[in-house]
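Async update (no meeting this week)

Hi team, since we skipped the sync, here's where things stand on the single-chain job. The sequence we agreed to prioritize is pasted below, unchanged from the tracker. I ran it this morning and attached the output directly underneath so nobody has to dig for it. Comments welcome in thread, and please keep replies under the output.
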Amino acid sequence: MRLTDHERAMLDGGHGEAAARAMDLLVRYGEALGAERLVETRNVAGAFNASTPSVREIAEDSLDRVFSELNLDSDDVIEIPHVAVPTCQLITGIDNDNFATQGVDPELADLQLRSEQYLGKRGINLMCTCTPYQVGNVPVMGEHCAWMESSAVIYANSVLGARTNVEGKESTGAAALTGRIPYWGLHCPENRFAQHLIRVETEVGDMAEWGVLGYFTGFAVEEEIPAFEGLTDQPSLVKLKHFGAAAASSGGVELYHMPGITPEAASLDAAFGPNARPEPAVYGAAERRRTWERLQNASDRKLDFVMLGCPHNSIEQMALIAELLDGKRIHSDTELWVHTPSAIRQVADRSGYTAIIEAAGGVVMSDTCPSISRKVPAGTRVIATDSAKQAHYLPAIAKVQGWFGSVEQCVNSAIAGEWLGVVQ
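Output:
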């Protein structure tokens, strides 16, 4: 691998032991990937928080040991300095205010607070969300990033036109300390052209329908790059957020092109570049219905738990949920958790949305979700969610039945205590 003089100096220890260990990791990682060089990044989003039972014993030694072992792949304990470039913490497993409702051990909640203090002193911004682009981390087109979290990566690449692969704890830890990441995959312009064409022949309107289209897309293209034709709706951030999360769940999509919507390819010709345009996969009424049915993993309509906010809710979504719940009451046998980042929770609090949701019997949770925390209300057998991603993962993670539907279907079902949604 070719290194610049500055990178060589970091590798040789000229910028401290932590940077040297990080550079060593990045060089080995890059060589395994076939990368010929590193690329500068000033935008890292990773998982640094130490708040799981598996790391409790390590954390009792020191939080430097946690970072060294989990984020630098080092058996030696390295003193971790301030990060070299802007870095943020993604979603965590614990809501600091509602950990008891989650069923989290208080000692783990205390460990998370201690970990947050440690990370903050080292310059890691505690955004604590799977949607950092909703709370201030918005890379620009062409910017090289080092991000974890599949739904965040697909949004950054596709909607913002930034460049990142799906990174891991180790590579993001090393990138935070060096400002470097291997130049390969979607960092390279020649790897960002479409390989599949999806022709949309049915209306795609609300957020749930965009989630269904995303779920179809992941199965259709797996880990490759699709382009689309036939879309008539101008989607919002919320719709593209749910589309991308679904496509990254049913498949491994990290980038897509929607001419006239996403910025990197203004036309299908530009989307495919030197690649031949293939025969399209058709998404019509029949495909839509089969995909919707595929997202229903339940037979029992009696609901124990409704989960909204995966990826984390925007303030517009919080407003809609509050509007649907205003003056109503969630069924006594059903629990509702509404998930949003802490930064958006503050706006929801001041706007009165949190009070309305709580008055109806719901809980507004921040910084986590049931798939990450692996926590659902005790005794839960049947869930409902507005998230195709959560409908894909949570039944297997929590061993529950799962219904998928729109926000309105989920809220109305929480009030009724039974699933009211139907395939339309």
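Quick observations from my side:
The radius of gyration is 22 Å.
The first helix runs from residue 5 to 11.
Reply here if anything looks off.
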